[in-house]
Amino acid sequence: MPNIAKKDTAAKPKKEVKKGGGWRWRSVRKEKEGPVLTPSELAATLFSHELLSSIQQLFEKIDADSSGQISHDEVLLHWKSFFQKHEYTEEQAEFTISPFFGDLDADGDKEVDMEEWMRFWVTVKKSGHSDEEISSMVEKMATSEEPWVHLEKAEMAGDTDCSITVFC
C-alpha cells in the first residue's frame, strides 16, 4: 500500500492586503496556536488600565452620536477646530483624515468600530511604542492638538513583514 501523506488542512497565516492606503487584517490562525483574542481583549493585556481607558474615551469622544462607529463626518467634526486654526481648506481636511480610514477601517465599511480602533493601538504598542508615547498621542488627538498620530512605521501586530504609515 502506498504511503500517502496527509494534506495539512490547518489555516495558514496570511499576509495583510494593502487597500486604500492602509493595511487590512485577516483573522486566520492555525488551530494549534490556541485561542484568538479580539483586539479589545489583547489591548487589555498590553495597556495599563489608565491608558486603555484613555484610548476608549478618545473613541467615545470622536463617536459623537454614540453609535459605536466613528464616521467620516464625526472625524471632521472632532478635528474641526484644528482645521480652522490652521486654515485648512476642505480638500486639505479631507486629505488629512483619509489615512484614518485607510489604516483603521479593516472591513471597508467606511466606519471605524471599537475593535478596529483597538487593533490600531495594539499595532502601535507591538511596534515598540511605550505607554508614555501612546498616552501622549492619545492626549494630542483628544485635545484636537493633532488630527492624527505620526508614526513613521508601525509593524502590524503578529506580522513583521507588514507595516502601516500614518501622518499628521
Question: How would you characterize this protein structure?
Answer:
The protein has a two-stranded antiparallel ribbon with strand order 1-2. Helix content is 45%, strand content 11%. The N terminus and C terminus are likely disordered. Helix 1 crosses helix 6 and helix 2 runs parallel beside helix 7. The protein has 168 residues and is of the alpha+beta class.
Strand and helix layout:
Blueprint (H helix, E strand, L loop, with lengths): L16 E3 L2 E3 L14 H8 L2 H14 L6 E2 L1 H7 L1 H6 L4 H15 L7 E2 H13 L4 H12 L8 E5 L7 E4 L2
Antiparallel strand pairs: 1-2, 3-4, 5-6
Helix pairs in contact: 1-6, 2-7
**Biggest beta-sheet profile:** 2 strands, antiparallel
Number of β-strand runs: 6
What is the gyration radius calculated from CA atoms? 18 Å
How helix-rich are the residues, as a percent range? 40-55%
Give unreliable regions as ranges.
1-31, 153-168
